[in-house]
Amino acid sequence: PICSGSDSTGGGGLQTIGLAHDQNFFSFEFAALNFTDPAKNRYAYMLEGVDKDWVFSNTRRSADYTDLSPGTYIFRVRGSNNEGLWNNAGAAMKVIIYPPWWRTWWAWTLYVLCALAVLWLIDRRRRKRLIEKERQRNLARELEMQALRAQMNPHFIFNCLTSINRFVLKNETDAASDYLTKFSRLIRMVLNNSKMPLISLEEELEMLRLYLDMEKLRFKDSFIFCFDISERIDTGSIYIPPLLFQPFVENAIWHGLMHKQGQGKLEIRLRVEKNTLICTITDDGVGRSFAKASTSKSAQKEKSMGIGITRQRLGLINGMGEDGENFRIDDLYVNGMPAGTRVTLKVRIREDS
User: Fold this and answer.
1) CA atoms within 13 A on the CB side of 341
2) What residues are paired with 47 via a beta bridge?
3) What is the C-alpha R_g of the chain?
4) pLDDT, tens digit, 9 for 90 and up, residues 258-316
5) Cα separation of 140 and 146, whole Å?
6) CA distance 310 to 147
7) Strands 264-273 and 223-229
C-alpha cells in the first residue's frame, strides 16, 4: 500500500503514519503483485474505526477518507488475482491523527486547574461578601446601641425625673401624672424598638410625638410643633431604623428653640420621592452660630456625636452614599439675621419589616 503525503515510522512490524488534527483528509493507493492479467485483479479494504465491514472496490485501487476525528485507525487491504483467489493476510497500516493542543491531556489538566481556580476565586469573593455583610450588620447593631444610648442618656432621664419631682413638689398632680405616663410609655417604646432593626414609620412618629409632648410640657409650652405628612405616605407600610429622627429634633429644641425669645415653632415634614423618604426638620430658633457661642463644649461634643452616629446609620441604610446625598443642614436667615435651621434627611424606603 502507498499513502500519499505522510510521515512514516516503523513500529512493531506495522507501518505507522502520524498526522496533525487538520490533516484528516487523505487517500490510500494500493496494487496487487499479480502481473498475469492485472486488469482482472480485485480489491477490498477496510479502515478499522470507520468501516464496519470490508469494502469491495473491484478494480479501483484507491480509498479516500475525509474529516476523520483524532484517534488511531488501522487500514487493511486484500487483493485477488485473475482467478478470483484472495490472499488471507493482505496488508495493513496504522494511522494516528493527533488531537489539537486544546484537546490534549495536559490541556484538559490546565482546564481543570483553571476551573478550580475560578471556583476558588468565586468562593473567596462570596466569603468576602459574607464577611463584609456581617461586618456591616455588626456595625449597624453597634450604631443602634449608640443611638439608644444617645437618646436615653443619663442627662435626659435625670431631667425627666427632675421635672416629675418639680410637678409633685408644686402639687401639680395632673401634670406630674401626665408627664410620668408619657415618660413610661416613651421608655417602653424606646426599649422595645431598639431590639428591632426596622420599625414602621407610624411607630417612629408616635415615639417622636411622645418625646415632643414631654419636652413641650417640661418647658411650659415655650414652643409648638406640627407634622406635615404627605398623603402619598402610608406610615404603617414604610419601615425605617428606629431612633433616626429624634437626635435632630432634640438638637432643634435644645440648641435652637430654647434660646429664642418668645414661642418657637418646630415643623417635621415627610414626603416621598423615587422610593426615598425625605424628612425635613425645620425650627425658627436662634440658628447654629448663636447656639455654638452659647452652648457648652460638652453639649456641643454630645450633639456632634449624635449627628455622627446618624450620619453613619444613613450611610449603611442608603448604601454608603455621599453625605450630601443622605444628610444636609441649612442655616435659615431673615433680613440677613439667623432665623433657624433646616435639616434634610433621605432614607431609602423599606416596605417589608
Assistant:
1) 22
2) 75
3) 45
4) 888 888 999 999 999 888 899 999 999 888 777 665 555 545 555 555 666 677 777 77
5) 10
6) 8
7) parallel
- Closest C-alpha to 51, from 20, 75, 29, 22: 75
Give me the helix-helix angle, 154-169 and 173-193, nearest 10°.
160
Instruction: Name the 3-class secondary structure at 141.
Output: helix
pLDDT, one tens digit per residue, over 72-103 is 999 999 998 888 888 877 889 999 999 998 88
Q: Three-state SS for 210?
A: helix
Q: Quick one: residue 274, left, alpha or beta (phi over 0 = left, psi -120 to 50 = alpha)?
A: left
Instruction: Give the dihedral sign, CA 302/308/312/315.
Output: positive
3-class DSSP assignment, residue 154: helix
The secondary structure of residue 35, as a DSSP letter, is: -
Q: Are 58 and 43 in contact (CB under 8 A)?
A: yes
Separate counts of helices (H) and strands (E) for the chain: 8, 16
